[in-house]
Write a structure and sequence with these properties.
Elements: E1 18-19, E2 37-38, E3 60-61, E4 72-75, E5 86-89, E6 95-96, E7 112-113, E8 123-128, E9 133-139, E10 149-151, E11 164-165, H1 172-179
Parallel strand pairs: 9-10
Antiparallel strand pairs: 1-2, 3-6, 4-5, 7-11, 8-9
């Protein structure tokens, strides 16, 4: 059976790779190879990793939100991308962790990989400069106040998959310069 899509898994997004495709027609005649494309955007370098999850990370509870304080773990078996350990949060748990400060601009793109194994009220990621915060919800069944939340991809991710959530955060630089007075 012919397909018009193919999913590749297990690619390490922090390394360079090149990709080409070509098609087969009904009679198994191969078409020409496509132009080679890379995972590194033209004019850009390899992505910087802002945070590696380890047992040494200092997670803090978010005040008035973190009900199940101990419901999180670092998982070195279910890793993504590649062999990077992942943070598993379950229950009614809200965690905060410091990253090296940086000033986003309109060209800032952040990539987040988030696997949802069951739908809860809110599954999200947030950023703060200590005074202001931006919250992006990517899954959950709670209707959110758009004055507090930016609901992106809400409900479109597959349960049990590792979608790359990057266009969700492409505008964080713009949001950061608009909402965060530096």
């Amino acid at each position: 059976m012919r397909r018009d899509h193919q999913t590749l898994t297990g690619l390490e997004n922090t390394e360079s790779w090149w990709f080409q495709i070509r098609g087969l027609d009904h009679f198994n005649n191969a078409g020409p190879w496509s132009e080679a494309v890379s995972n590194i955007l033209p004019g850009h370098d390899h992505p910087d990793t802002l945070l590696y999850f380890t047992s040494n990370n200092d997670f803090e509870s978010i005040i008035n939100e973190d009900i199940d304080v101990d419901d999180y773990a670092i998982d070195s078996l279910n890793t993504f991308p590649g062999s990077s350990p992942t943070l598993v949060i379950f229950g009614n748990s809200w965690k905060s962790i410091q990253i090296e400060p940086f000033t986003p601009d309109t060209g800032t793109i952040l990539q987040v990989f988030a696997m949802v194994d069951s739908i809860s009220d809110i599954q999200a990621i947030g950023f703060s400069n200590g005074e202001n915060s931006i919250r992006y919800s990517f899954s959950g069944h709670e209707t959110l106040d758009i004055e507090e939340w930016i609901p992106v991809y809400q409900g479109v991710g597959q349960v049990g998959a590792w979608p790359l959530i990057d266009s969700l955060l492409e505008m964080i630089g713009l949001h950061g310069t608009i909402r965060f007075p530096y």
